[in-house]
TrEMBL record:
InterPro entries: CobZ, FAD-dep_OxRdtase_2_FAD-bd, FAD-oxidoreductase_2, FAD/NAD-bd_sf, Succ_DH/fumarate_Rdtase_cat_sf
Keyword Oxidoreductase applies: yes
Cofactor(s) required for function per UniProt: FAD
Keywords annotated in UniProt: FAD, Flavoprotein, Oxidoreductase
Database matches in Pfam families: FAD_binding_2 (PF00890)
Recorded name of the encoding gene: tcuA
Molecular function per GO: oxidoreductase activity
Residue span, FAD-dependent oxidoreductase 2 FAD-binding domain: 3-441
Keyword set includes Oxidoreductase: yes
Organism: Pseudomonas donghuensis
Name of the protein: FAD-dependent tricarballylate dehydrogenase TcuA
Length: 483
């Protein structure tokens, strides 16, 4: 019998598998995706938000615990478990050496991401390189890895894990039978339900305009997170936490692919211009805060607009101050022409921009600080980086909501145990997106998802090894394996 079974193939799952193996347990990892698509949403990431009290290698200045906590508190509106959040924050300060032991390399922040140079450590080669490094380390340590192995059912004895079932599937033209896999302990890290269109429709329902908003969502993350295991745990009576409509949802280019668009589809110039809906009207403060703290609210904002459609409008003054999108924008030398190209109501669009321009009170513009450029007498206001759009050619990027991962998940505690009626399972644990809702009730700040996955993946791995008889939960962290 396997000691520890890990279900999932992203950052949290890999951290759990590596920690359990370092503790001496035999480990099997089940990745539902084919090998070429392994890694879940982690393959689309690029950095980790890190607490540090002084400059550290790629991290400048300091980012202390309390500031990190306040940033998280602000974006979640207080909908977070402080105890678990602080575990994540503190763990982010000392995990990088362990990550380097398993082949992960870091680099200074990119020139278009200077806002997070102090707070976030960037992966050399991005999330794909991190995932590949972890898989290489797992293979060297003897972790058994199975691909195309989506778990469809869990067998329990009360709250105790007994076995997992892989459903029938077709791989490379061959029909494979269902399998039952027993283990002494199990870690669930199979992601949310963002790629389950039916579940999204169920969660979001129909709006007052008779639209089904989720029908217009793009899935910025992996196509393989369909929530099969999450739904099964719900049916088995596991304790859940979170709102099914809350998610890491970003305003992305409306021309992005339906699945796996990743980070390159994000539109990062929102704070440097204005955003209008298809009626040519603004609907939110584009300059509320630094983009890394605010980019993940814009998906929900766009989701609330007619047709779940919006447009980010800039002029030439914004160029060179944001990460350029993968698709070119629509350009025009006049506002009227831009509106016509976008098929927006010309009169209303021009009125919106002219009212904004007239309301701008330009002080000292500084896109790297919360500057004093703001609007007066305008609703909604723009509180920072407000400059009149007067330098053609004007440029527009079409926006739609892009879902990265959903927040509905399993309730847990500081041991990462799955709970049933308030009681912790003795040998079933959870990590990553399947429990992120404990920390992220709503909102997002750049790099926090990887921090949650790394912290609770490592905790779950240690706890699963302990449940299998290899460590006591109070033991110190196992020594780094030689890799």
């Amino acid at each position: 019998m396997i000691d520890v079974l890990v279900i999932g193939g992203g950052n949290a799952a890999l951290c759990a598998a590596l920690m359990a193996r370092e503790a001496g347990a035999s480990v099997m990892l089940l990745e539902g995706a084919p090998k070429i698509w392994r890694g879940g949403n982690s393959q689309h990431t690029r950095n980790l938000r890190c607490m540090h009290d002084a400059p550290q290698d790629v991290l400048v200045d300091a980012y202390p615990e309390e500031e990190y906590w306040q940033d998280l508190l602000k974006v979640t509106g207080g909908i977070t478990n402080e105890k678990l959040a602080r575990i994540v924050i503190r763990a982010s300060s000392n995990c990088r050496d362990w990550m380097r032991c398993h082949g992960v390399h870091f680099q200074p922040s990119l020139s278009g991401a200077l806002h997070v140079a102090r707070t976030n450590a960037f992966f050399m080669g991005g999330g794909k390189a991190l995932v590949n490094a972890y898989f290489r380390s797992a293979e060297r340590l003897g972790i058994k890895i199975r691909y195309n192995a989506q778990v469809t059912d869990i067998e329990l004895k009360g709250a105790e894990f007994v076995a997992a079932y892989i459903g029938e599937r077709e791989v490379d033209g061959q029909r494979l039978p269902a399998e039952r896999i027993q283990a002494k302990a199990c870690v669930l890290a199979a992601g949310g339900f963002e790629s389950n269109r039916a579940w999204l429709r169920e969660a979001w329902g129909q709006n007052e305009r008779g639209e089904w908003p989720s029908d217009n969502f793009l899935i910025r993350g992996t196509r393989f997170n369909t929530g099969v295991l999450l739904r099964r745990m719900q049916n088995l009576g596991a304790d859940f936490i979170g709102d099914p409509t809350q998610a890491h949802m970003v305003a992305i280019d409306a021309r992005a692919p339906l699945y796996d668009g990743g980070i390159c589809t994000r539109i990062d110039c929102v704070s440097l211009g204005v955003v209008v809906n298809r009626d040519g009207e603004r609907f939110y403060d584009e300059g509320e805060d630094f983009w890394p703290k605010r980019y993940a609210i814009w998906g929900r904002l766009v989701a609330g607009q007619p047709g779940q459609q919006a447009y980010s409008i800039i002029d030439q003054q914004a160029l060179g101050r944001f990460m350029p999108p993968v698709f070119p924008g629509t350009k025009a030398n006049s506002l009227e022409d831009l509106a016509r190209q976008l098929k927006l109501p010309v009169t209303q669009f021009v009125k919106t921009i002219e009212q904004y321009n007239a309301a701008c009170r330009v002080g000292t513009f500084d896109h790297t600080a919360l500057d004093n450029c703001h609007t007066e007498g305008l609703t909604p206001a723009k509180t920072h980086w407000a400059r009149p759009l007067v330098k053609p050619p004007f440029c527009a990027y079409p926006l739609k909501p892009g879902v990265t991962f959903t927040y509905l998940g399993l309730a847990t505690d500081d041991t990462a145990a799955v709970h049933f009626n308030g009681e912790a399972s003795p040998n079933l644990f959870v990590a990553g997106e399947m429990m992120a809702g404990n920390v992220l009730g709503k909102g997002y700040t750049a790099g926090i998802g990887m921090a949650i996955g790394t912290a609770f993946g490592r905790i779950a791995g240690v706890q699963a090894a302990a449940a299998a008889g290899f460590l006591t939960p109070s033991s110190t962290e196992p020594q780094h394996a030689a890799v």
